[in-house]
Structures are given as structure tokens and as C-alpha cells.
Amino acid sequence: EDCAVAQLTIDKQKMIIASCYMDREDDRCPPESIEEVTKYARDHNMALIIGCDANAHNDMWNSPTINDGGRGERLEEYLLINDLTCENVGDTPTFNNGRWQNIID
């Protein structure tokens, strides 16, 4: 898994910042490392910020291309169950390779 995690304190608030690339070939979405860091943050009453390339598409983050084998639905369910918030805003594509464009997940 391609994840990096940092724990820090800002203004006496402990938090975790994680960055993760979720391989489209991996059936787990989110991967175990994200599940573990989410649990750790919750168990230790810490703020959590996760930035990721999930290779998952869903209307929740304004990614209209729904061809990911259910990854987007699984990730949306995970966010809802764990009371996490998706902060993607807007509908302007953030990826454009000349052949297609999309809002990166």
C-alpha cells in the first residue's frame, strides 16, 4: 500500500494527516492502512485529514464517471459509516489528459 501518515499537534489539537494512493487493481477500498489510521484517530480522539487518489468515482465527490466496479460506492459507505466528510467541492475537472477529463477522486 502506498500510504504515508504523520501525527502532529497544532494549537494543542492532536491530529493525523494521511496520504494514500489506492491502486485500482486492489479490491480493498479503502485499504487496510486507511481503516487502521481511521480507528487510531477515533480511539485517540484526534482530528484526521486523509488526502488520496482512490481510483474510485462517486457523485459524493462530483466524479461523474462511474465505471470503477463499485469502488466509489464502497468508499462512500466507508465515509458515511465512519462519520468522515468528503471535502471535494465544485464540478470543474481537475484532470485532463486530452483524451478525457474528470474530477480526480
What does the model show?
- The chain has 105 residues and is of the alpha+beta class.
- The protein is 22% helix and 28% strand.
- It has two helices and five strands.
- The strands form two sheets. Strands 1-2-3 form a three-stranded mixed sheet, covered by helices on one side. It has a two-stranded antiparallel ribbon with strand order 4-5.
- The longest helix has 12 residues, at 32-43.
- It is globular, with a radius of gyration of 14 Å.
- It starts with a strand and ends with a strand.
- The model has no long low-confidence stretch (mean pLDDT 88).
Shape: globular
What is the terminal-to-terminal distance? Answer: 17 Å
How many E strands?
Answer: 5
Number of H- or I-type helical stretches: 2
> Low-confidence segments, ≥5 residues, pLDDT <50?
none
- What is the overall pLDDT average? 88
Element pattern in H and E: EEHEHEE
Give the strand content.
25-35%
The major pleated sheet works out as: 3 strands, mixed
Strand order of the largest sheet: 1-2-3
* Gyration radius from CA atoms, angstroms: 14 Å
Structural class: alpha+beta
Helical percentage: 10-25%
